[in-house]
Design goal:
The complex is a heterodimer of chains A (152) and B (174).
Chain A lengths: L6 H18 L5 H8 L6 H22 L19 H17 L3 H10 L4 H29 L5
Helix pairs in contact in A: 1-5, 5-6
Chain B lengths: L1 H9 L1 H7 L5 H21 L7 H10 L3 H4 L5 H22 L17 H17 L6 H8 L3 H23 L5
Helix pairs in contact in B: 1-2, 4-6, 8-9
The chains are: A mainly alpha (152), B mainly alpha (174).
Chain lengths: 152, 174
């Protein structure tokens, strides 16, 4: 698969701005997230809403201006995922983890960049959790595939 | 400037109670997070979230069938994550003191390792089962006015608030 030569550089620049923003917003600091969840400082609302409004404007206007993205030819669209029980189950498990640790994936990577090395406990945990659900869901999918009668 | 305007609007007392650290750092940081997302979207049409990196990177070392779907995107997701790490490092070098003094620049969290580790495991499971995290659902999904993401965000926000308050009420230290 050949890619536009600017594809990876653009991803890097986007990531740099994203990470700088997470550092600047202090969301990379677990204490700040926990203060927010304990209603001691509502500032974090501005991070999520500020970010989603900026993204929303782009998701809304670009599809009207152009068919597809210049570097990939991918059609401009919104991020729409199907709803099912998993959104509630996963969201709840994520919520317990976020409330306990005060850290989410993007903020954890940013936190590492700031030099907050204890965040490696959280990142290590995230990989273990992602791996565990992957093993479990792979087995479930494989079983379902094996159980499906072959139609021939 | 933002903070002074907000204090005028809300009154100094409310401002101090609700936003003890002001709002400008949060608002500017949030706009930059959005801008990073938009830059990638502009060029590629991709609405990037941070947590898929966990599974896509696992596909390098694990043959589990669940991770195979992420192989085509795993390299750029590593680059995206390195960008996030690097962008935050640039922030720290600019805003947190002498860049050459390792001891004086930056900070480390007071939250205890077990809370980070156990919380991290649950975050890792939950974000993948729940189809997104604070950036995928919270920034891209809410920005898309996706009903799934709005429900996802409401779910993890409420559960996280309950969890943090419960843990605090039980007298568990950071």
């Amino acid at each position: 698969m050949s890619r536009h030569p600017l594809f990876l550089p653009l991803i890097l620049v986007g990531g740099l701005v994203f990470g700088f923003g997470l550092g600047f917003s202090h969301m990379a600091r677990p204490e700040v997230v926990i203060d927010f969840l304990l209603f001691d400082d509502f500032g974090l609302l501005f991070v999520m809403f500020g970010g989603s409004i900026v993204a929303g404007i782009a998701f809304w206007t670009l599809p009207k201006l152009r068919e597809s993205a210049p570097l990939t030819g991918r059609p401009y669209g919104r991020r729409l995922k199907s709803f099912d029980r998993n959104v509630l189950i996963g969201g709840s498990i994520f919520g317990v983890g976020w409330g306990l640790s005060g850290i989410c994936p993007g903020a954890a990577y940013a936190s590492l960049g700031i030099g907050n090395w204890p965040i490696l406990y959280a990142i290590g945990g995230m990989f273990i959790g992602a791996y565990a659900q992957g093993v479990w869901r792979s087995r479930e999918a494989d079983d379902a595939a094996a159980a499906t009668p072959v139609d021939d | 400037m933002i903070d002074a305007a907000a204090a005028d609007l809300l009154g100094a007392g409310t401002m101090e109670a609700a936003f003890p650290n002001g709002i400008s750092r949060y608002a500017i940081g949030g706009l930059l997070v959005g801008l990073g997302t938009v830059l990638i979207y502009l060029g590629t049409g991709i609405t990037a979230g941070a947590s898929t990196f966990l599974e896509s990177t696992l596909s390098y070392v694990s043959g589990q069938s669940r991770f195979k779907q992420y192989r085509p995107s795993r390299d750029w997701r590593v680059v995206f994550t390195l960008g996030i790490v690097g962008g935050a490092a640039i922030y720290a070098l600019i805003y947190q003191g002498d860049p050459w003094s390792l001891a004086g620049s930056g900070w480390t969290t007071e939250v205890s390792p077990w809370r980070l580790f156990v919380g991290g495991i649950l975050v890792g499971i939950g974000t993948r089962v729940g189809k997104g995290c604070t950036s995928g659902h919270g920034i891209c999904g809410v920005g898309s006015v996706s009903r799934t993401s709005l429900v996802g965000v409401a779910t993890f926000l409420v559960v996280a608030i309950v969890t943090a308050n419960l843990v605090s009420a039980l007298g568990v230290g950071l």
